[in-house]
Design a protein that fits this description.
This protein has helices at about 25-35, 50-55, 60-75, 90-100, 115-125, 150-165, 180-190, 205-220, 235-240, 260-265, 285-300, 355-370, 375-385, 390-415, 440-450, 460, 480-495; strands at about 75-80, 85, 200-205, 225-230, 245-250, 255, 270-275, 305, 330-335, 350, 420, 430-435, 455, 470-475. The chain is an alpha/beta fold. Strands 3-10-9-8-7-4-5-6 form an eight-stranded mixed β-sheet, with helices on both faces. The chain has a four-stranded antiparallel β-sheet with strand order 11-12-14-13. The protein has a two-stranded antiparallel ribbon with strand order 1-2. α1 crosses α3 and α15 packs across α17 (about 480-495). The protein is globular, with a radius of gyration of 29 Å.
Length: about 500
């Protein structure tokens, strides 16, 4: 340990932990931290390597190695006869670190003035978005992972590595792994009624990545974009960050009100829709509205981004074909994802694009993030081509229908008089409506403290006439899990209602 201080020695205590990192690393880390934090002022002289080595009980070579790294970073200067001193240029670094250190990750109400306009929009719009990391009732967006065919997936993975070997370690086309694009095109045509070929498919890292690409490439500052109201909040955030002027077009029992959209912004650049299972209300866009929307886009040259949210999970009829299959004007960009059907950890999805847009989206991927993980793409391609994906969809569809029925029955018994929940014809979640004088944000906050995960509807609703509500995921939960969580939620709602 260094002892005392003279005008030419550093004002700090330095000791070594025999159980810690190497001595060289500890000396370097301690000196670097002291310089960046301001503990060592610029121009201040460090002890000589001999003195510091003696005091710390290490070799001089060890100390010189640490000094050399600091010299290489420009944090200290060394001149014969003048010793080693803290460099003058570190003052701006210290000021910047102190300014940012005053803000914590939980400061969601801060306006983050150091961010760009797009950064501030993302920061603000992402305030209410939480990614569930565990399957706790009633976290949404998680499938029934107990049905994930892990044995089959592992076998296919081993086989693919055995057949392809180190080829899977090489970079791939930014448009995506060829066999996966072929498999997706076949699936989208047969199962979703799409009209496409493999050359129209671009592989992405999930639906949100696809939305980001659409916003970057198709929308500029001030461009008008139709957004469903209520809307899928993460999509709203992406288009807001692109500088778009968001036009809230109401949704009713038939989906997006196209006539109202034409009144509000007939020259809009783009429309974002979730026609198969509207997010968050769960309604389906009627055929008449779909045709009207496609006709508007064809006449005006607008783009339609169709997010086929939960399109595979239809319970009252066979799945309704994607709107993209009706498009004769090449105006629809179709988004599909495997995060909801297989696992949220499998960050793979796809875009089906008009041919005129494929080159632009592929080049954008090359510049932004190159491509998705090749081994995962190859395994998924085999999984789809071997028929396992279609079988998985059939199994999970049957289970989710049973679990939705169980949820509605339990809600009537456990939450009756507190919240209104109706069955939905599709999807993996349900919406429950609270009394209008309640705050869904307060309910969500208190429920979270008691181990019940919910999403408040109010951030989705904007200026719509719907009351406060809660979004319930049900796909991965057994009836027993639902019952326990509902009883706790009933207590939460009563306690929140009783507050002054």
């Amino acid at each position: 340990m260094t002892k005392g201080r003279t005008p030419d020695t550093m004002p700090m205590q330095l000791s070594l932990d025999p159980r810690g990192a190497s001595r060289h690393q500890q000396i370097y880390d301690a000196l670097r931290a002291a310089i960046l934090s301001g503990g060592l002022r610029h121009g201040e002289r460090l002890p000589s390597s001999r003195v510091l080595a003696r005091d710390l009980g290490v070799s001089r070579t060890t100390v010189l190695g640490a000094f050399s790294r600091l010299l290489g970073e420009g944090l200290v200067t060394g001149r014969s006869g003048a010793g080693t001193r803290v460099a003058m240029m570190t003052a701006p670094l210290r000021r910047g670190r102190r300014a940012l250190a005053q803000v914590t990750p939980g400061d969601a109400d801060d306006d983050a003035p150091w961010l760009s306009r797009a950064g501030r929009a993302l920061f603000a719009e992402g305030k209410w978005r939480r990614i569930p990391t565990r399957a706790i009732p009633f976290a949404a967006g998680i499938p029934a992972l107990e049905l994930f065919p892990l044995t089959t997936w592992t076998r296919l993975a081993a086989r693919r590595w055995r057949l392809s070997g180190r080829d899977l370690l090489l970079p791939d086309d930014s448009q995506g792994y060829g066999p996966l694009r072929e498999a997706i095109a076949r699936y989208a045509v047969t199962a979703r009624g799409a009209r496409c070929k493999a050359e129209q498919v671009v592989i992405v890292n999930g639906a949100q990545h696809a939305l980001d690409l659409c916003a970057r490439l198709l929308v500029g500052p001030g461009d008008e974009v139709w957004m469903e109201s209520p809307c899928y909040a993460p999509a709203r955030g992406v288009f807001a960050a692109a500088g778009a002027t968001l036009i809230d077009v109401p949704v009713d029992a038939d989906g997006l009100d196209v006539a109202r959209g034409l009144e509000l912004a007939p020259a809009a650049r783009l429309a974002f829709v979730t026609p198969s299972f509207q997010s968050p209300l769960g309604v389906t866009m009627s055929l008449e509205r779909r045709v009207a929307l496609l006709d508007w886009a064809k006449r005006s040259g607008a783009w339609i981004v169709e997010d086929d949210y939960n399109g595979e999970y239809r319970y009252d009829t066979t799945p309704i074909p994607a709107m993209q299959g009706l498009d004769t004007g090449d105006r629809v960009l179709y988004i599909g994802t495997f995060s909801k059907t297989l696992s949220p950890a499998i960050r793979l999805g796809y875009l089906i694009l008009p041919l005129a847009l494929v080159a632009a989206f592929t080049r954008a991927r090359l510049l932004l993030d190159r491509h998705s993980a090749v081994p995962d793409q190859a395994i998924l391609a085999d999984f789809i081509s071997s028929g396992h994906f279609a079988r998985h969809i059939r199994r999970t569809r049957a289970l989710y229908q049973q679990r939705q029925r169980a949820f509605v029955s339990l809600a009537a018994r456990e939450l009756g008089g507190l919240i209104t929940v109706d069955a939905a014809p599709a999807g993996m979640w349900l919406v429950g409506w609270l009394p209008r004088d309640m705050s869904d944000l307060e309910v969500v906050e208190e429920a979270g403290r008691r181990g019940v995960a919910l999403v408040a509807m109010s951030p989705y609703l904007g200026g719509t006439a719907h009351g406060p509500g809660l979004l319930f995921g049900y796909a991965p939960y057994t009836a027993a899990q639902m019952r326990v969580a509902m009883r706790e939620l009933a207590s939460v709602i009563r306690d929140v209602r009783a507050r002054p």
